[in-house]
Amino acid sequence: xxxxxxxxxxxxxxxxxxxxxxxxxxxxxxxxxxxxxxxxxxxxxxxxxxxxxxxxxxxxxxxxxxxxxxxxxxxxxxxxxxxxxxxxxxxxxxxxxxxxxxxxxxxxxxxxxxxxxxxxxxxxxxxxxxxxxxxxxxxxxxxxxxxxxxxxxxxxxxxxxxxxxxxxxxxxxxxxxxxxxxxxxxxxxxxxxxxxxxxxxxxxxxxxxxxxxxxxxxxxxxxxxxxxxxxxxxxxxxxxxxxxxxxxxxxxxxxxxxxxxxxxxxxxxxxxxxxxxxxxxxxxxxxxxxxxxxxxxxxxxxxxxxxxxxxxxxxxxxxxxxxxxxxxxxxxxxxxxxxxxxxxxxxxxxxxxxxxxxxxx
Length: 361
Hints:
Layout: H1 22-28, E1 38-42, E2 46-52, E3 55-60, E4 70-74, E5 79-82, H2 88-98, E6 106-111, H3 116-119, E7 130-134, H4 135-143, H5 152-172, H6 176-196, E8 206-208, E9 211-216, E10 219-224, E11 236-239, E12 244-248, H7 263-274, E13 280-283, H8 293-314, H9 319-325, H10 345-359
Parallel strand pairs: 5-6, 6-7, 7-8, 12-13
Antiparallel strand pairs: 1-2, 2-3, 3-4, 4-5, 9-10, 10-11, 11-12
Helix pairs in contact: 5-6, 7-8, 8-10, 9-10
């Protein structure tokens, strides 16, 4: 079996008001939620909201770049983490704060897909911890040079841009209080930069192709590959008894990064997701939600994006031009981050590649 990791925040080469940077997604999305769970504990870096008995949702509450959010499943004798963060330091911080909710050891880590903010904590775990992912994840981490591709590559540039911007702001700031705040932000960003240097791409130790079922006492945990979509190897963690599904970035509560997407298959895979008998969805970014109608809305967004981009491509526009011209504001009610015309540049570039792939005999 196989697994993969790595992906980092991003700075868009052009300003696209309808979208958001992956960095903003990774660091600020769902920084604590209040609608789907009960706050159970708050540590130095993470807040844990209780979703059900033994099921928690961890979100960042500090300056460290931690990556996505983490469903945490506390079993009779051990703990399963769903994804493990942007850097080894983020994973260690999560393990430290988890002690606020349980003293049981982490024995299982699931990588929902290979992107950096979900797998770059893999390297801190010893042989007593099994890291599980779809077989494509192992392939990606081992064979695709994940530290020199998107979305990780752009994250490095973005962080350097942040550092230089903060330095300029500090130099020109006359208010002592504001200058101190900016300095704290700069210190945190520079610490994150140093942590990126410690990343060692580490693949899963256990993989599966379509389904794996684990049992711990009375708890059943299903790992499901419902089809390609956000990436070529997205894992859904399904707790049938609790009627909870953890989707990574296959389905978020907001628009997801599309730089590795297979757009038509994504729509089909989301249809399979809707057929699962769940009441609560815990996404890799954003906030938990209950309504399957949001999944349907995202399918509609993807269809609209594909249609508009295909039309613009036939008109001879480049991917960069199409990214600025598409108008998805009709989906703003479901995805408020859409502020005006435009779409993520990397996503549209990927769509052009995907269209070329489909056109090959």
